[in-house]
Amino acid sequence: MQNPILRGFNPDPSILRVGEDYYIATSTFEYHPAVRLHHSKDLRTWTVVGHALDLDLRGIPDSGGVWAPSLTHADGKFWLAYSIVRTMDGDDKDIDNYVVTAESIDGPWSEPVHLGSRGFDFSFFHDADGTHWITGVQWDQRPEHPSFGGIVLEEYLPDEGRAAGDAALLYQEPTLVEGPNLYRIGDWYYLLLAAGGTGWNHAITVARSRERTGPYERDPEPFVLTSRDAPGIPLQKAGHGELVQTPDGEWMLVHLASRPTLHLGERYSTLGRETCLQRVVFGDDGWLRLADGGHHASVGPGAARESSWVERFDARALDGRRWSTLRAPLASGSLTERPGWLRLRGGHSTASVFDQSMILTRAEEHAIDFSAVVDAEPRSTRESAGIIAWYDRAGWIQVQLTWDAENGRHLRIICRDGSRTVRSAAVPIADGPVGLIARLRGPDLTFAWTDAGGKEHPVPGVHPAWTLSDDHGGRLRFTGLFFGVRAEDLDSRGWSADFGDLSLTQRET
After folding, report:
1. pTM > 0.70: yes or no
2. Residue among 154, 178, 242, 489 flagged as catalytic
């Protein structure tokens, strides 16, 4: 198989097989809908089948929201555990954990059961004796103590709809471990762990015990999987994994990794953390190892990928398998007021954690052409519409159709990097609808516009797409690059812009 199997921002994969069907759930953080669900019959070809959760996450911080889902199947139903990170300031994290169930992966999902706020990366383990257990990270908010207080185990009581309330410390290391998943394989309980954080030192390790509650013995090898010692291989940041067994008895390890681009010799993972798959075996000593040896993730065989699509807005609702919004459903858009167009009523600024008027689609490759036709007549400096390359509120680059008294209707390129915002000079354009184009080439981003006759006009400047990554700026950032369209009306007077013929072509480089 060719890795990544889920390209672009698809981190923290949780894998499950039910019969001949495989499913993967991935984290969505502040994006709506929440918890992306993928399906495959052969572990090679995957399709997005939808999302599990319709949550209102307005007010949560960038890279907060829904972390690390756990998808399991027991008692004839699907179980989905997830964390909502509501604040993450300094030593403090306010985290709520939940579980929902459904008879079908398509739902409907039950009302959530609150599992407490002990930490994050909660996962379920269903033991052969019919009991149900939760493993997760215990967060320690005390500044003089390590924040990662260890891996804890707590029983879940489904008949009572609650966690038991007493969590036992299962495992600790002097260094950071998280993302726990517990398995019973043969006579052993195996605890699969993510180590080293989510950056360049990320890794997967394992511990095992004869008893569910331990004590757990650490694998004598440092890591089952990591790329920390090989900065030149294609798949970096390899870590945070889960196991699944095929009908033929083979074991597969799903994990996250990143494909960085280079800028001045430095690595930037603009596409975010992606999902990959490796074949693994249990050796004669019972420890988990990559089937092909070593501890580096393999891309595997396959031709370079290219894909394209055009969105003509001919359905009655946005396709959530393609489009995401920030924190809540899009309340400011209409697909019926002008058939074949998306009408966006202008929303808050790019700094808002509440009501931005924007739709976004994941960037999956390092060479991308994204375009849209924009039909809008701003009459104020506080009205604008355009296309955007988006990472989060502190990192974005957009070409904006706006107005001012000196230039009339015109284009500007605006870049946000942390607290610094830079605007280009005004670019004059023709009257009427205008085509806008963004071109990503590795670390660089350029823009152009087209007139009514289809003639293309470059917009001056090459812009730093490499800043749109979790490796830039020294902040905790866990998501990935999106392209999309947005409209702003900072006076909230009901001004709107129409968007049509959105297209995206992306190629592996």
Report:
1. yes
2. 178
